[in-house]
């Protein structure tokens, strides 16, 4: 009998041959550039098929499930891949798309019993699983076959073996798809109802970002008639992060999804009527030289709150209520339009239109009224004179109507509030990050919302740094509350403007529209790293669950004692030892300034690191140097945290969270260079972790 490996090798050769044949057939058909819509649709279909075949050619499938439907005798092997493939000769399905209903069994089947089911469009299909097999193919070569379930054999529930094989790999400079190893709790989120606003609280490395991107791909497949990629949008914290995640959707065969930051998007909405003040100064204050007092952050949080939103709405209502002057329009002697008539047009007939549009409508209507009135005048000469006069009257009448830009109106509102809420001093058009949401809201009220800017689905990553007001704005831009909102409250290092509890965001929706999920297993880092990092932050965790590691053991976390003078030498030694063995290594500093200094020193020592500072739009991988607060969302094979002393990381909530974020960026190795006196955060962590055997020791040196 053939071994599973040989069996799969033959199958692979067979499938690849069919893929090639199909590619050849398609290559023989030229592209269509004419105007016939039927031909255009056929051409688009062929293009999609070409893209799918390109994906299938590299790795046609990754899993196999042998399933016997209830009341049938045939056991059917179902091959599951990133895209579906059909045998052109027989019409049989060669490979089923991972998003198809039947594929859900591959992710939900745990092997506890041989029974399984899936929900097809025609109802629930039940049956028996005979085999669940993971198949690793790279560049058309079969690399590995792991049976995680064989009916009747003792060998069940070894799913982790394949997962661990995947997790142990080094990562390059891009986030990757995880279709072959999606875990049950992740799959539940990916396949969740379209019209739910999903909030995911997930520990570092639990796959939040990855899951959100897979959910997009799933929604596009499941609701292909209703959802289009151009109508989906991803909000991410910065451009570098967008670059870092940019390969996942194309890998899943999804293109054209807009990816942006809230600030860039909001500025687009405002059409450059404002200038966003650089956030560098404030970030520097918050992360680097924070002194007591949080006046600035209180204002930022207030301006991001639903309370402030309600205040803005109330003032807008008042503005609207007094918008139309309470006086008639007098065209000429004895000819006037009563104020009540004009108000009726504005407040009743045009009430569904935005404010400024209504104003235009009223003016156009007065003009039409004038035209009919002119006709009543018999002689030409007085008519010409009267027309001129009436036009001038209309111009001066309309001048008595309010005429604010959103920014002017907002500035006026702020001036009416206590002084500390004022606009920033500086250029006239300059605003702060937290002013963006109210300004977009005012713009909508004045000029309306462009239907092109209404999305079928919105992803909000690192949502703990988003304000409720911002989310409320986005809700207006979303059809049917279809949101994926993800983040981690233990990583809320921008708490001066973000949220501290998910309740704050959930309140933007009706309660029956929201579903909350938790992802508590960390897939990124080894057990040793997760245990160590948990100790750092546990004091500040409150109700938030700490990360559970996957059972993947690696090297102990190494805390290396390095005094000021020897710090550079120790770092160089460490790099020489580790860098060649990994694809990505980050040196994480406490501040931007220190990142720059180390960068210069490494350059002088012949290294070629990439310096990552705020505003960076690209992530290149390899050796990176960056301040800790910019490392959020990223991951590296190895991480070196520098300057773990009580000056750089004193024992407070922000520093604990920063250190936690930094440590949880590491997949396989974590090194901490510690100076005297060592940071109390790591002192505590160290004592606990040493007991658990996760840390090699405080004074270990690099040899
Ligand atoms: N089911 C899985 N199979 C294989 N790898 C996984 C799985 N889930 C997550 N990962 C891997 O774990 C790492 C972390 O994923 P991701 O960045 O999406 O997590 P996150 O929750 O957004 O993390 P953070 O909060 O730290 O930004 C990635 O390398 C991802 O490929």
Automatic annotation (TrEMBL):
Keywords: ATP-binding, Coiled coil, Helicase, Hydrolase, Isomerase, Nucleotide-binding. ATP binds at residues 202-209. One of its GO terms (biological process) is recombinational repair. GO terms for molecular function: 3'-5' DNA helicase activity; ATP binding; DNA binding; hydrolase activity. Gene3D superfamilies: P-loop containing nucleotide triphosphate hydrolases (3.40.50.300). SUPFAM superfamilies: P-loop containing nucleoside triphosphate hydrolases. Residues 181-526 form the UvrD-like helicase ATP-binding domain. InterPro entries: DNA_helicase_UvrD-like_C, DNA_helicase_UvrD/REP, P-loop_NTPase, UvrD-like_ATP-bd, UvrD-like_helicase_C. Residues 5-59 form a coiled coil. Pfam families: UvrD-helicase, UvrD_C, UvrD_C_2. It catalyses: Couples ATP hydrolysis with the unwinding of duplex DNA by translocating in the 3'-5' direction; ATP + H2O = ADP + phosphate + H(+). One of its GO terms (cellular component) is cytosol. Its EC number is 5.6.2.4. PROSITE patterns: UVRD_HELICASE_ATP_BIND. It is an enzyme of class 5 (isomerase). PANTHER family: DNA HELICASE IV, UVRD / RECB / PCRA DNA HELICASE FAMILY MEMBER. This is DNA 3'-5' helicase. It comes from Thermoactinomyces daqus.
